[in-house]
Amino acid sequence: MKDKIGTLEARKHERLLEAVQQRLDANTEAMRQHRETVEHPFGTIRLAWERRNS
Predict the structure, then answer these.
(1) Quick one: which of 36, 12, 42, 14 has its CA closest to 50?
(2) Rounded-to-integer distance, Cα 40 and Cα 47, Å
(3) Is the dihedral of CA 42, 20, 7, 5 positive or negative?
(4) Which residue of 6, 7, 33, 40 sits 20 to 30 Å from the alpha carbon of 49, by its own alpha carbon?
(5) Alpha-carbon span 54 to 51, nearest angstrom
(6) pTM (2 decimals)?
């Protein structure tokens, strides 16, 4: 029974994931800007956290 529930959940979100991927593929400039403005600060925070906790 649990396997069927997991499969159902994967299919439930499959359309959403496909739509997100299509938007990302269609607008590569927006994704580049996102990486430059959002992902870098989070990477810096993660690096500092890892150094503090190692």
Answers:
(1) 42
(2) 11
(3) positive
(4) 33
(5) 5
(6) 0.43
